Amino acid sequence: MKIEHLFKLTICVGLLGVGSSTQAKSLPSPITDADFHDNGKPSVAKVELGKNLMFDKILSGNKNISCATCHHSLTGTGDGLSLPIGEGAKGLGITRDTGSGINAVHERVPRNAPHVFNKGMKQFVQMFHDGRVSLDNTYPSGCKTPAGQNLLTGLENILACQAMFPVTSGTEMAGQAGENSVADAAANGNLSGPGGVWDQLAGRLRAIPEYVEMFKAAFDDVSSAEDITFAHAANAISAFERVAWRADNSPFDRYLRGEHHAMSKNAQKGMFLFYNNPDSTRVSCGDCHSGVLQTDHKFHAIAMPQIGAGRGDGYDGYEDYGREQVTGVIKDRYKFRTPSLRNIALTAPYGHSGAYNTLRAVVEHHMNTVKGISNYDQSQAVLPSRGDLDQHDFVLMNDASRVAEIAAYSELQPMNYNHYEIEKIIDFLYALTDRGSVDMRDDLPKRVPSGLTLAE
After folding, report:
1. Cβ distance 154 to 228 under 8 Å?
2. How far apart are CA 172 and CA 152, in angstroms?
3. What pTM does this model have?
4. At the topology level of CATH, where does 38-78+114-245 sit?
């Protein structure tokens, strides 16, 4: 263990008054440029291109929604909702409506829009709540995805692989079959072929001279419009996310780098409690939320409430089996990826279905998961209301037998932190927020090359 880490842990132990019999766990090493793809420094031209693509509705079937609608700088790189309201709606964040008339949304997106902070780090080898996109060199693209062998090649990293898929979802960006040719291709499962989703979207970009010049400046293998593929677009979006939404200058980061007064004493106490449960017979928060990003990158069942219309599993389709949908293994039922807790104060609601709207509520759920789901307060959900959608939102949570089954799968035993300890842990969680992420207005372009409006 490094001397400075021993010093930090000694401080924490002293602050807590923990006896010498308590075995303190080592703190992680601080983040460096080397932890990111491209050492965290992709070209300026590529980042600028990605910035425009991120906010341009040209990538949606009906040209009415952008990637940033659900991953926006003004909403903590998420959307502020429990479950996203995708293609067909208007507004941003909690002001987003459900659309109207023939353009009204057909359903809520079934899972919460996760934040994108630090997703450009190399330690992320799986994406989405269920990990359905993962690094795998046995595939031509380098990633195992729902597209199988048909994913485009030339993708630079897993974040770029992930960026290929929201545009293929009818609910998220493509639109419904019959509304546009992109939606028709998506409905027919044609993603990569001629006339497929990615081919059509690349064609739109090739037809915009300003974008062609931006692609030529960003990529050595693009010398004309004909060279542009959607893989180039995904690589550019990845570059923007890696730079704009890197967050590694929180008080915790500064503490790890030797600034021992960067965190308050309460946050330091909470840090020790987070990584070390004083009750040695119990797990600690850091057992799953481990490492410098507070995630073990694994999948766990912790009885998170399931709201919305579900993912087609179990009880009339209202359930979401999580990781089991990817592996087909029943022991993975209700397991979801451990999220990074970076900038957690900015990224509510929490959980794969966004069931908890406050940091305290989701922390208390972890203290006793069975009690948490059994006593879930449905007012925590942040869901734009519409009668036909509302009637589906709590069908599962109103069925005691289904709630009991989800609770039975929970692998997280009660942690038994007391009220004082929970308060300090929350202080530590706030210390995971990079102040540079509090105001990200400069991440927005003033306009986009397509000429479409930025207003959602």
Report:
1. no
2. 20
3. 0.93
4. Cytochrome Bc1 Complex; Chain D, domain 2 (1.10.760)
